[in-house]
Amino acid sequence: MTKHVILVEDEMNIAEAIRFLLSQDGWRVETLANGATAAQIIRKAAPQLVILDVMLPGKSGFEILHELREDPDLQDLPVLMLTARGQARDREMAEMAGVSKFMTKPFSNTEMLDAVRALSAG
Amino acid sequence: MVSLNQLVAVCLLYVAGLFAVAFLAERAAMRGQARWLLRSPLVYTLSLSIYCTAWTFYGAVGYAARSGLEYVTIYLGPSLVMIGWWWVLRRLVRVGRSQRVTSVADLISARYGKSNTLAFVVTCMAVVGVTPYIALQLQSVVLSLAIFATPDAALSGQASGPFNSAKAAFWVAAGLAVFTVLFGTRNLNVNERHPGVVIAVAVEAVVKLIALLAVGAFVVWGLAGGVAETLERIDASAIGTWEVAGGRWVTLTLLAAVAFLCLPRMFQVMVVENDDERHLQTASWAFPLYLMLMSLFVVPIAVVGLNLLPEGSNPDLFVLSLPLSQGQNGLAMLAFLGGFSSATSMVIVATLALSTMVSNHIVMPIWLARGRESATQSGDVRHVVILSRRLSILLIMTLGYAYYRISGGGALAAIGTISFGGVAQFLPAMMGGLFWRGATRTGALCGLGVGFALWVFTMLLPSFGVDAALSAQTFEQGLLGLGWLRPQALFGITGLDPTVHAVVWSLTLNAGVFVAVSLFTFPSPIERLQGAQFVNVLDHADPGRGWAASAAGTEDLMIMAQRILGAEEARRFFLSEARAQGQQGGLPEPTPRFVQGLERELAAAVGAATAHAMVGQIVGGASVSVQDLLAVADESAQMLEYSSQLEAKSREISQTAAQLRRANEKLTQLSAQKDAFLSQISHELRTPMTSIRSFSEILRDARGMKAADKSRYASIIHGETIRLTRLLDDLLDLSVLENGQVTLNLREGRLGDVLDQALTTSLAGAARPLDVARDPQAEGILLHTDLDRLAQVFINLISNAQKYCTAENPRLDISVRVVAGEVQIDFIDNGSGIPADEREVIFEKFFRIKGVEGEGAGLGLSICREIMHRLGGNITYMAHGTGAGFRVSVPTDQQPQEGADSLARSAAS
């Protein structure tokens, strides 16, 4: 069974780069560009991994993560968060909301792959 | 011949009259009535006449009979003091009033740091010095009574026979004690002033003057036969040829002047009983006049007495014995009353003054030291003070009586001079205290001690006679056999008159020691303070009539109320109170109700505590001057001013604080904006860099990648670098525009040309077509502005329409209008427009419409707005129909910077 990852990212170029990377690693990558409906879709699809951007149209990455962690079934769902704002406060907020891994853009591809592998293994 | 019983009856009647006068005066003073009399300069002047005791009344004639014109010195001294009142007396009275001084001892003690030791010493000295004087008065009364009782014995000056002089002296002393107790300790709660006593003294002053003048007139016109005959008799007598010894004259005049200042009874009437400083001015001529009248007939009486009366008659009693010998019983009676008046008035006031000192400085300190715990209740203390005062009076009177019984009496004048010499010792400490700030307590004590010791040794003890108090050996060989300690030839200086010798030595050494010790000792802080107050007492404003403050001080209350409430307010209040008391006009009675009301009124102005203290000082009777109250008022005013200054300052400070708070809020806001801005920039920079990094790594690491993918990823990288570059350009552009550092390149050009250029630039290589509608005719208008910057704005708007117009066939209408000095260029597309809630913020930095994909960083419209502001125009969003609409306004009559002239040229062309 192919591993399923949902990527919530409004920057199409970044989304394409991540899709390319992860699909080479055997992931089925589903991309969402809008935050508003992301949580609902994730709950329904039950992926093995979620990659969340912070600044999203519709709903911020923090809000989505919060909604996900409110669902008892999704307590242990690995969530990798990405931010381009590079502020320490963002990391704190993400950790409080129950993020699994937090990364700052730009990242190296190796970094991304290592993080995804670690999260899916654990 | 008048019988003794008749005489006693007359005396009793006279004394009863005095009682009545004193009683009425006292009552009137309590009620605040008859102030014109009680506080008149005339009464003040007459009260000073207690200087003229029986010694002067009877003794002056005796003095003249024995020593010729020398008696004049005892009148000359006080006259000089009164005439020179401006220099010394005024100062003394001012200090006495401002310091609420009750006696000489109190004055000296107050000056030298309120020292009770000094007060005690001065009191003791005063008692020792004055008691013989009181005895002398008793003696004179008894002698004069004896003349009536046994005329024969009287002529020889021996009181004996059926008349019991000791008994008489006792009853006289007892009667005077009762009078003094009654009128001297009546109103203790008030100050040390006694209107009843003063008025009685004034009456007695009139009686003795009339008596002496009457006897004198009888002698001159009745016995001698006229003025010319009298003068002839004087020339013929020994008195006229008496030599005048210069040194003795000067010394005696000085002594009389000093005694006039230092005698406790004189201090009592002159300073303590003084109502108004201005009375001194009247007394300065009226009192010398009184003394002159008193001395007018002294010589004629002495001369005629010596002529007519038998050899050996006591010249001290000529005033009485001359009329008696001529059968003039009525005149003799009057003369007796005059002498009686002189004696009683002196005894009463002297006893009063001494008892005040004894009570305040000896009895009370002892009592307070013994029963400290009971002194806490004020009512109790007052009761004790009255008792102590009364006991002191009895004590002084007993001392006087005892002295009279023991000494047996010598010549009247001699006792007087000795007494003068004793009290004169107060002078250095007193004058030094008034004029010299450097005087110290130790100096005063030492001076007084030395002076008093010398006085006792050279004047008092020798007066008892050789081998009485001092042995003949001491007189001849000096104390302890030391030759330079002979009582009448100190330090080997001989040949001086004993009186001159004693006065000069005692006063000189007293003053010398006082000055020397003062120079070598340091005053305590309180001495310095008091010294400054005493010496500078005249520097303060004239206290005027403010002294008042008896129980009936309505006038003073009025003055104070005026100062605090204002004249009109105070007048209204007093008038209404007077009316409420049923008085037609005038001042209200100071009833408790009225005073309470006044206090309430004042409390409103100066606060309850101060008002209470001020009213209490006046009504409670403590001597308080208007000056004091004004000082309080001044202080309050200063406090008010100070507090209002503080208020103003605190207002300023709170304003500053508010300003700082606002500035701080603004800074916080700016700081938050800066953080948000940096966060945004970080995001805008990191986003393209993420794509660039990721795809470049893919390209680097990928093997066997399709050529199409490779080319696609490379073009993404390329596009993202362009995006980054544009972002940086926009940021720099915005920064320059916002800082106002932009240089405008003003040119003249057609609007149509600018639009043409903008359309060409923005639509080149556009992914989809945009239908643009224009108005060529209106576009012909000439503009004078930065045409490139204007084109930048147009490009931005056209590109936005091209990118974001949602219509199927996008169309942009560009219309131009000239309105009120500006050209309006509207850009309206046929898309869905901008949602109403976002129209407010589209010009903010980094704004992007939600859910709309765009490659820009969201700085375009911010830049447009900045550019239009620089050009002196504006850009606004138009809520117009369905599509997005922007209006760019460019001024035509107002140029952004210099260039008004070129616009004028363009308009003309």
How would you summarize what this structure contains?
The complex is a heterodimer of chains A (122) and B (909). With 122 residues, chain A is of the alpha/beta class.
Task: Using brief descriptors, characterize the structure shown.
heterodimer; A: 122 residues; alpha/beta; Rossmann fold; 5 helices; 21% strand; B: 909 residues; mainly alpha; Sodium/glucose cotransporter; Helix Hairpins; 36 helices; 68% helix; rod-shaped; disordered C terminus
How would you portray this structure in words?
The mean pLDDT of chain A is 89. Chain A has helices at 12-24, 38-45, 61-70, 88-97, 109-121, and strands spanning 3-8, 27-32, 49-53, 79-83, 101-104. Chain A has a single domain, classed as Rossmann fold, CATH 3.40.50.2300. In chain A, α2 packs across α3 (61-70). Chain A contains five helices and five strands, in the order βαβαβαβαβα. Chain A has 122 residues and is an alpha/beta fold. Chain B is rod-shaped, with a radius of gyration of 55 Å. Chain B has four domains: 37-97 and 133-370 and 379-409, Sodium/glucose cotransporter (Up-down Bundle), CATH 1.20.1730.10; 547-621, no CATH class; 628-733, Helix Hairpins; 744-908, Heat Shock Protein 90 (2-Layer Sandwich), CATH 3.30.565.10. In chain B, α8 runs antiparallel to α21 (412-423) and α11 (195-224) packs across α17 (298-308).
